[in-house]
Amino acid sequence: MNIGIDKIGFYAPHYYVDMIKLAEARGIDPDKFTIGIGQDEMALAPVTQDAVTLAANAALRVIDEEDREKIDLVLFGTESGIDHSKSAAVYLHHLLGLNPYARAVELKQACYSATAGIQMAKGHIALNPESKVLVIGADIARYGLATPGESTQGAGAVAMVVSKDPKLLALENESTYFTNDIMDFWRPLYSEIAYVDGKFSNEQYIHFFNTVWEKYKEQTGRSLEDFSALCFHVPYTKMGLKALRTILDEATESGSERLKANYETSIQYNRKVGNIYTGSLYLSLLSLLEQNDRLEGGERIGLYSYGSGAVGEFFTGILQPNYQDRLYVHQHEELFNARKEVSIEEYEEIFEETLSADGSSTEFDRANDPAPVYLSGIEDHKRIYVNRIK
C-alpha cells in the first residue's frame, strides 16, 4: 500500500517587506540579503494572525468535505505555540469543522516537527487505511527589529493531507535520521526572542545533512543519479544550496546541473515568504512542484529536514502520475499577487503591535485582515478566533 502526500497547500500573511528596502533602511548592502542569504521578500504577520490562524488558512485551501469526515488525526508542528498546555491542533480541529472522533496533537522539535508529523501519519495510515491525516507546519519567525536575524524572519503555514494511494507524492519507507544534543538555536520559556549561534548552526545543518545522506546511501545503495531533485529545509534559501554543494561532486555533470536547476526552482516561494520554520521544507517542495513543468510521475524527490537542537532526517518520495492535477498553482499565484507591500515604517509599527503580556482583554480591528480565519481578540485570557467562511 502506498502512503504519502495527497494534497498540499500553503498560506502566507497579506503583508510583506521588500528586502532591498529593508537593507537600505538598515544601512546594509542589499546584495547581502538578496544574494548573500538569498531572500527577496519577507512575509509579515499582523497581530490578528498567529500559528493557529495561519494553519487554518492554509488547510482551508486544500481540504474538502470528504477530508473533513476522514481526517481522524491532526498533527500540528510548530515552534510558535500559543499555550504551554492546550494544543494548537485542538483549536485548528474546531476551526476547520473536522470529524470530532479524531486525535489532535501539537508537536515540537524546532523546524523538524512537521516531518515528525509526516512519519507518524504514515504509521497511522498503515494501521487505519481508510483514514486521512492532516499535517501542519505553521510558524512566525521573529528576531526583532534591526537585529542580526531580522533578515531571516517570515511567517506562513503549509498544510498536507496524508493518505493511502496519494495522488501527489508516495513516501518511500527508507529514511535516515540523526539526533545530537547541541545548542545552536533555542528559546527558553522566559524569553520572547530566540538565542542562536549562527556560524555553529550553519555548520551543524551541513554536518547533519552529510551524516544522514551517507547513512542513506549505505542503507539503500542509491546515489544522486537516482534523484531528480533534492529539497531542503531553508531558514534562508542560500543555506540549502550550501549543503547541496557538499555532495555535487558525487553526480555526473548533467546530474549536477539538473539538481542545481531544480534547487533554484524549489526556493522561489521561500524567497518571497522568508523563514517559516516547520513549514520551510514543505514550502520548498511545493515551489518545486508548482514552478517546474519538467518533472514527471515516477521521478524520485529527496527531502532533508533539520530542526535545531538538533534532529535531522533524509527521506524520499516518488511523484505520482498526473500529480500536477493535485496542485493549486492559480490559488497560490493569487495569494502572492494579492499581498500588500508595506514601508519600513509600517513594518516596524506592525511588528511592534503584539498581544498584551498579561492577557488583558483586547479587541482587534479586523477590517485590515482579509484572511478567512483571524484572531479577533482576547477575552478572559482566551484567544477568540473567527472563521468567516465556516
Structure description:
It is a single chain. Strand 16 and strand 17 form a beta hairpin. The strands form four sheets. A nine-stranded mixed beta sheet has the order 5-4-6-7-1-8-13-12-11, sandwiched between helices. The chain has a three-stranded mixed beta sheet with strand order 3-2-14. A three-stranded antiparallel beta sheet has the order 15-16-17, with helices on one face. The model has no long low-confidence stretch (mean pLDDT 97). The protein has two domains: 227 residues, Thiolase/Chalcone synthase (Peroxisomal Thiolase, Chain A, domain 1, 3-Layer(aba) Sandwich); 153 residues, Peroxisomal Thiolase, Chain A, domain 1 (3-Layer(aba) Sandwich), CATH 3.40.47.10. The chain starts with a strand and ends with a strand. With 390 residues, the protein is α+β, with helices and mostly antiparallel strands. Helix 3 runs parallel beside helix 5 and helix 9 packs across helix 11.
Explain briefly what this protein structure is.
The protein is an alpha+beta fold and 390 residues long.
Q: State mean pLDDT (0 to 100 scale).
A: 97
Tell me about the largest β-sheet. 9 strands, mixed
CATH architectural arrangement of the largest domain = 3-Layer(aba) Sandwich
Tell the overall outline: globular
- Proportion in helices: 25-40%
| Main structural class | alpha+beta
Radius of gyration, CA atoms, in whole angstroms:
20 Å
Organism: Oceanobacillus indicireducens
Active site: 79 (proton donor/acceptor), 111 (acyl-thioester intermediate), 233 (proton donor/acceptor)
Protein name: Hydroxymethylglutaryl-CoA synthase
Domain Hydroxymethylglutaryl-coenzyme A synthase N-terminal: 2-164
